[in-house]
Amino acid sequence: MKPITIFKSLAFATLICTILSCKKNNNNEFTGLGKVNLEFDNMVGNQELELNTGAYINANGDDFKITTFKYRICNLTFNKADGSKTLIPESYLLIDAADEKTTLQTISDVPAGDYVSMDFVIGVDSLRNFAGAQTGALDPAKGMYWSWNTGYIFVMLEGTSSKSTAMDNMLMFHVGGAKAPDNTIRKVTLPFPTGGLRVRSNAKPEIHLYVDAGCLFKGNTNINFATLSGFMGGPNAVTVANNYAMGMFSVTHIHN
Amino acid sequence: MVGIGCKKNNVEMPQTPITFAAPSNFPAPVYQFTDNTVSQAGFDLGHRLFYENALSIDNSTNCGSCHQQFAAFANLDHKVSHGVNNCFGTRNAPPLFNLVWQPNFMWDGGVHHIELSALNALVNPCEMANTLDNIVKTLSNKPPYPQLFKNAFGSTEINSQRLFKALTQFTGMMVSANSTYDKYIRKEKGGEFTSDELAGYALFKQKCNTCHSEPLFTNNSFTSNGLDINPKDAGREIITLAMADFGTFRVPTLRNIAVTSPYMHNGRFGTLDNVLKHYNSGVKNHNNLDAKLKQNGVLGIPLSATEQQQIISFLKTLTDNEFIHDPKFAELPQL
């Protein structure tokens, strides 16, 4: 960028700031775009999630194992201390505990700056859920999609529990649905630890997210596998979505 | 690129560019081809894909197998669809036309976008039993598809989005609006009604038009017409989980109805005579029976034998022979 352009932008920014009287923006002198890594550490409580082999107990005291754990998040937004928000366009992610490539995701083109928290939607926003044929993480070829009742599956947890009365003691929780009364779209805000997230054009900070699969079954309503061993959307999916919105995701630490 | 001599590439250049146009007696369509502008190459690709057996898992079945042009893209003589491995589905294959005016799809309305309406048939184990991954892989290795996708979308990449968009360019262009009825309404040549047809139309407007509303001949609602006291198929309830929707189904269009037998979501009736008899005397008092079919304590729609025949005469004016013989949509041989 030519010095004269910088000068012009600064002058313009100063003018805007004066009008909006947002004095503090002076410290926000970082320019350009940076990358941010998101690492998803899949857990059950404080145990690491191990598909097929890990043995867990839910909040109701029921034993269970997990064979599949996948989830979608979208509309990533990074927030600054001054309340300004930066939405990352086309940020639709699909994380599959069985596929390591998906548990580390890189977000590009994040404006350089210091951020104190992030928001995202667990699931797929209503607009895109009801749009036409999609590609990328939203390609129905990637699964997590209902063809007979069009829409994305937002969170999928399958496994077994000795308490389940379903065939082969199965657990099959498919959370989704973007229409009232069974809308399961949930938005969460995750505060960053002290120090925040420092995005720079020449660095690639990494956010470690702790994703607690056990949170599907506790929070608002503890799930008893003897009475609820699965569903595909519907009112029970709302119960589980209300549970996981309360704490499935948290940021444990950030490598700036 | 100019002057590199690409003249010969297009042997059959169309006379006029292909575009979508709503008939003058129709409302604005629901689907406006946003982000999917129709092109000749896209339409041709969709046409080719619609009749492509390689979309099915065992290379035996294509969209046209259950959606036959002579039956206005319904499935003549099949109560329910007949998929790979001699598997029979549970519902009657609906006709395909005027789809861009449809707010949702399937007998239960579970699919809410035309671009995704083909997905069920592609992956249902009782229909084409394939996977999107496998279809993409098969087409990517099957010339001339990479070239056809390039012609339509600018590069040889094949993915499910392009597959669906191309199919939609074909199926979305299937507009049926040249029946005798349409010509009557638009006061065009060929739009003359006989006295029976006129009488049938008058009766239709009194007794059928609330649900089968003109000009699309459906109000797009879900309701029960009292086929059974205890429906075996939960219908719309499968989608909404609301008991008020149990045993209800989409009100189908009546356009081209004379060529799309059998009728109802399960192909219950083979003839229009039997359909009219049902409305006159066969309606069962199911919990969710449409209120319009039990007015003043009377089940169904009382119609004399003459009135039934007059309504059928009118329904036959809804057949669009130009559409069901239009070479644009004709079956293509396998490549």
Report what the structure shows:
The complex is a heterodimer of chains A (256) and B (335). By secondary structure, chain A is mainly beta. Chain A has two domains: 1-29; 31-255. Chain A is 14% helix and 40% strand. Chain A is built from four helices and 17 strands. In chain A, strands 3, 4, 5, 6, 9, 10, 11, 12, 13 and 16 form a ten-stranded mixed sheet that branches. In chain A, strands 1, 2, 7, 15 and 17 form a five-stranded mixed sheet that branches. In chain A, strand 3 and strand 4 (63-79) form a beta hairpin. Residues 1-27 of chain A have low confidence and may be disordered. Chain B has 335 residues and is mostly helical. Chain B contains twelve helices and four strands. In chain B, strand 3 and strand 4 (298-299) form a beta hairpin. The A-B interface holds A 130-135, 139-141, 147-150, 182, 233-235 and B 35-36, 106, 110-116, 119-120, 123-124, 131-133, 136, 159-161, 163-165, 168, 238-239, 241.
Q: From the coordinates shown, what is the CATH architecture of the largest domain in chain B? A: Orthogonal Bundle
CATH superfamily of the largest domain in chain B: Cytochrome c-like domain
Order of helices and strands of chain A: HEEEEEEHEEEHEEEEEEEHE
Total number of beta strands of chain B:
4
Fraction of residues in H or I helices of chain B: 25-40%
Number of domains of chain A: 2
Q: Oligomer, anyone? A: heterodimer
Low-confidence stretches of chain B: 1-11
Look at the structure and give the CATH class of the largest domain in chain B: Mainly Alpha
Portion of residues in helices of chain A?
10-25%
Low-confidence runs of at least 5 consecutive residues of chain A: 1-27
CATH topology name of the largest domain in chain B, in short, is: Cytochrome Bc1 Complex, Chain D, domain 2
Number of domains of chain B: 2
Averaging pLDDT over every residue of chain A, what do you get? 90
* Count of helical stretches of chain A: 4
